[in-house]
Write a structure and sequence with these properties.
The chain is built from 20 helices and no strands. By secondary structure, the protein is mostly helical. Helix 2 packs parallel to helix 12. The two termini are 15 Å apart.
């Protein structure tokens, strides 16, 4: 299956991961209230932290190794069995730690029932094995399965979550998403491989498992750790503001994340073939895609943040407006990082550089958290995220230049930044005269049309032109 079809399926998959919760969030935020929403998100961030430790680098390592061995069934079975065993050892250790932490940390013991439900999520995450299907580029199966289960999730939320005290039910439904997906995946994988305990070789995988895992953990020090730290320092209400502020950002970034996820196995294959020119060509296209949609979306989101928050969460969430305006530019910053790290450094197995990136980001994140979050709460968490990601971007750009002499496209950035001034003026004028939801819709339409026109007629962006002309032949 080609990049375009994989990208289409993975785009649907990734966006649905945010769109379906977005369908329920306006309802849930109004029924549960900001504090109970904050409790669910705080506990979910804690559980996801345990999952990070249990998974370590299995996601990226798995995709990379499966993609390399997918044409040899025996080798593929050996790789799968070895990686799953490594993942199982880590999961058992983490579940024991989770039980101990729940018993001895008052803030978590207070919500021991949610921690128990979260423990089930940690366990079944072992059998989720999304890395296996992504390495095989089975995006069609993943997408269809996920859509069916997510539709069931949405219906369940509207049926079972009816009052503020139902936040425990809502959290349980969130965890069941992982459980049901894991059961489906575990049975479907038998079509491709069998788990064979006799051919396990851990020595080939524990190093990237730990190296990339350490990268993921350090990265979390300025992403998911923000939510957990804010919960301990500022309380569940501030978590409610912060997580509400990041909702739209995650949806916007999800489309580009889908693209980079598809590109990882393809880039890994090109690197193993020594086709560096093709790697550079695809990287250039990735920059074009990012710049094309990020600037108008960021500007539109910043200007219409009050209206967006009101639509998403209703009244009582005004504290999320400023944090949202701060984090939305991360669409561009993290998009650039994903190109540099996921599409270049990881396929080139530059694990050392990736680890250094994460150390830099973690240090900035830890220091900024200690200095800012106590004083500025959810706003401080937003600033911490921006500062940390900027540090990581600068570091990653340096290492990519050192590795294969690819520079950040400064000229293209400046051109699209200039276009952004036009988007800014348009949105500001429309909001001044039409200060309601219609203003959002009208400005979004005008900016969208203008963005396409600028890319086609001024920048002569061949990628956008080819998409518009529906050229399916890959260059």
């Amino acid at each position: 299956m080609g990049i375009k079809k994989n990208f289409a399926y993975n785009s649907i998959l990734t966006i649905s991961g945010y769109i379906f919760p977005l369908l329920t969030f306006p309802y849930v935020s109004r029924v549960l209230g900001v504090t109970n929403v904050g409790i669910c998100n705080f506990m979910d961030s804690v559980i996801n932290y345990f999952i990070l430790f249990s998974m370590m680098g299995i996601g990226v390592t798995g995709i990379r190794e499966v993609a390399k061995n997918k044409n040899d069934r025996k080798s593929l079975s050996n790789v799968f069995s070895s990686l799953l065993t490594l993942n199982a050892i880590a999961t058992i250790i983490i579940l024991i730690i989770l039980i101990l932490v729940t018993c001895f940390v008052p803030k978590l013991r207070e919500h021991w029932q949610l921690m128990c439900v979260g423990g089930v999520k940690v366990l079944f995450n072992l059998f989720l094995i999304e890395w296996f299907f992504k390495g095989l580029e089975e995006f069609r199966y993943i997408t269809i399965r996920s859509l069916i289960i997510k539709v069931s999730f949405v219906l369940s939320v509207f049926i079972f979550v009816r009052k503020a005290d139902d936040y425990k039910i809502y959290f349980t439904l969130m965890c069941l998403l992982v459980v049901v997906n894991a059961i489906c995946n575990w049975f479907y994988r038998r079509k491709f491989i069998l788990f064979d305990i006799h051919n396990i070789t851990l020595k080939n995988y524990y190093k990237p498992f730990l190296m990339i895992g350490t990268y993921m953990l350090l990265t979390s020090m300025y992403t998911s750790f923000n939510v957990a730290f804010l919960g301990f320092v500022g309380g569940e209400t501030e978590v409610g503001y912060y997580t509400t502020a990041t909702k739209l950002y995650t949806i916007i970034l999800s489309l580009f994340t889908a693209f980079t996820s598809v590109m990882l196995p393809r880039m890994s294959a090109l690197v193993s073939e020594g086709n560096i020119e093709r790697v550079k060509n695809l990287t250039s296209k990735s920059f074009d895609i990012l710049f094309c949609f990020s600037f108008p979306l960021i500007i539109w989101s910043v200007i219409f943040a009050p209206e967006i928050i009101r639509i998403l969460a209703g009244t009582g969430y005004e504290g999320a407006i400023l944090p949202m305006r701060i984090v939305v530019p991360l669409v561009l910053i993290i998009g650039l990082e994903q190109i540099l790290v996921l599409q270049i450094l990881m396929p080139f197995r530059a694990d050392k550089y990736i680890l250094i990136n994460s150390i830099i980001g973690a240090l900035v994140g830890i220091i900024a958290n200690l200095l800012l979050v106590n004083r500025f709460l959810s706003v401080g968490s937003s600033i911490v995220w921006i500062l940390s990601e900027c540090a990581v971007l600068i570091s990653a750009a340096y290492f990519v230049w050192k590795l294969i002499r690819i520079k950040l496209p400064v000229k293209s950035f400046i051109v699209n930044f200039v276009y952004g001034i036009a988007f800014f003026v348009i949105c500001l004028v429309i909001r001044y005269y039409i200060a309601n939801y219609w203003g959002m819709v009208i400005s979004a339409f005008i900016c969208g049309v203008l963005a396409l026109a600028l890319q086609i007629f001024i920048s002569k962006n061949t990628l956008v032109i080819n998409i518009i002309r529906l050229r399916n032949k890959e260059k």
